[in-house]
Amino acid sequence: MLLDPGNGVVWQEAGLLHWELGNSRAAVLAFEHAVATMQEPALCSRVQSLLDEALCQLN
After folding, report:
1. Helices 41-58 and 24-37 meet at what angle, rounded to 10?
2. Residue 37 to residue 58: CA distance in whole angstroms
3. 8 A C-beta contact, residue 54 and residue 27
4. Per-residue DSSP letters for 1-59?
5. How far is residue 20's CA from residue 56's CA, in Å, rounded to a whole number?
6. Phi, psi (5° rounding) for residue 10?
7. How far apart are CA 6 and CA 36, in angstroms?
8. CA-based torsion, 14, 19, 21, 24: positive or negative
């Protein structure tokens, strides 16, 4: 199975997995990629919220 690196949903899922595993830095990177590649504005807004939460955890 091949994954499209330009698919924001894939990056969102990667970010969620990293977050659940306690890897906040990797989650932030994945969420940043998700925001940059997300096609749907509603999903982009949700991912931005996740990104903001992950960034707060780093600080």
Report:
1. 160
2. 23
3. yes
4. ----TT-HHHHHHHHHHHHHTT-HHHHHHHHHHHHHH---HHHHHHHHHHHHHHHHHH-
5. 15
6. -65, -45
7. 9
8. positive
Instruction: Indicate the pTM of the whole model.
Output: 0.88
As given in the structure block, the two tokens for residue 28 are 């932030």
Radius of gyration of the chain (CA): 11
pLDDT digits (tens, 9 = 90+) for 2-59: 577 788 999 999 999 999 999 999 999 999 999 999 988 999 999 999 999 999 988 7
